[in-house]
């Protein structure tokens, strides 16, 4: 399964360039942060999905700052798709999480707060009830570098690996690695890539991360 995590900045820069970036990566699952919001946000996300060959399975409502799109084919079943509404604790953006089980793998899309205390409080909620410790991948914008507490808590909870990448922010001459893919130990990474180039720089202020995953082979 190919997964992609991408902060699209509300599609406010160039939705056409952002769509080109996604089509070039050709993911089965697209984890979106900062999807378009407002009265026509869900419609814009649906149109974006149509442009890249994917269908939103979680968009709008409680997911708010996240969305989850999937290539709908018979061999990629989706179950239990739902948003998780998070309390607004900082007086800033009200955030949410997108969750679905795609072909037996729980996919969790996060966009954590810019405020450290709010990141910690939201993780308290998510780790207690919404992030399983097997067959799970967490993707998203953590708004802190890999040595930060959110990364460390997620990695410890999942008991697996943080997928190594280069820097992802800003999209032009990136210096910070704040976009993450973390997974449980029963999942294996076959490849990872951080796209670059003019379309990436035009589409958003973040670079996406693309990762190929499969289940670990059991041994006897």
Given helix and strand content, the structural type is: alpha+beta
Shape category: globular
Strand content: 25-35%
Number of helices: 5
Mean pLDDT: 94
Oligomer: single chain
The number of E-state strands comes to: 12
Radius of gyration from the alpha-carbon trace, in angstroms: 16 Å
Question: How would a crystallographer describe the biggest sheet?
Answer: 6 strands, mixed
- Taking the alpha carbons of the first and last residues, their distance comes to 25 Å
The level of helicity is 10-25%
**What are the segments in which pLDDT stays under 50 over at least 5 consecutive residues?**
none
Please trace the helix and strand order, writing H or E for each element: EHEHEEEEEHEHEEEHE
Biggest sheet: strand arrangement:
3-4-2-1-12-11
Give a short synopsis of this structure.
With 220 residues, the chain is α+β, with helices and mostly antiparallel strands. It has helices spanning 15-25, 41-52, 116-129, 149-158, 198-203; strands at 2-7, 29-33, 55-58, 66-70, 78-85, 96-102, 105-111, 136-141, 161-162, 179-183, 187-193, 209-215. The chain has a six-stranded mixed β-sheet with strand order 3-4-2-1-12-11, covered by helices on one side. Strands 5-6-7-8-10-9 form a six-stranded mixed β-sheet, covered by helices on one side.
List the helices and strands and how they pair.
Blueprint: E1 2-7, H1 15-25, E2 29-33, H2 41-52, E3 55-58, E4 66-70, E5 78-85, E6 96-102, E7 105-111, H3 116-129, E8 136-141, H4 149-158, E9 161-162, E10 179-183, E11 187-193, H5 198-203, E12 209-215
């Amino acid at each position: 399964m190919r997964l992609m995590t991408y902060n699209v900045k509300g599609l406010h820069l160039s939705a056409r360039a952002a769509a080109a970036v996604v089509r070039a990566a050709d993911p089965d699952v697209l984890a979106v942060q900062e999807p378009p919001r407002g009265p026509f946000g869900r419609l814009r996300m649906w149109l974006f999905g149509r442009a890249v060959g994917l269908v939103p399975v979680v968009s709008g409502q409680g997911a708010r700052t996240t969305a989850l799109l999937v290539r709908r084919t018979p061999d990629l079943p989706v179950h239990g798709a739902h948003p998780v509404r998070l309390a607004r604790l900082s007086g800033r953006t009200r955030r949410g999480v997108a969750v679905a089980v795609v072909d037996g793998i729980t996919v969790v899309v996060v966009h954590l707060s810019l405020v450290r205390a709010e990141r910690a409080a939201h993780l308290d909620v998510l780790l207690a009830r919404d992030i399983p410790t097997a067959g799970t991948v967490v993707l998203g914008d953590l708004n802190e570098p890999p040595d930060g507490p959110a990364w460390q808590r997620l990695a410890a909870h999942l008991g697996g690996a943080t997928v190594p990448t280069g820097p992802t922010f800003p999209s032009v001459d990136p210096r910070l690695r704040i976009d993450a893919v973390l997974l449980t130990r029963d999942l294996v990474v076959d490849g990872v890539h951080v796209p670059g180039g003019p379309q990436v720089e035009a589409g958003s202020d973040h670079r996406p991360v693309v990762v190929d995953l499969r289940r670990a082979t059991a041994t006897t």
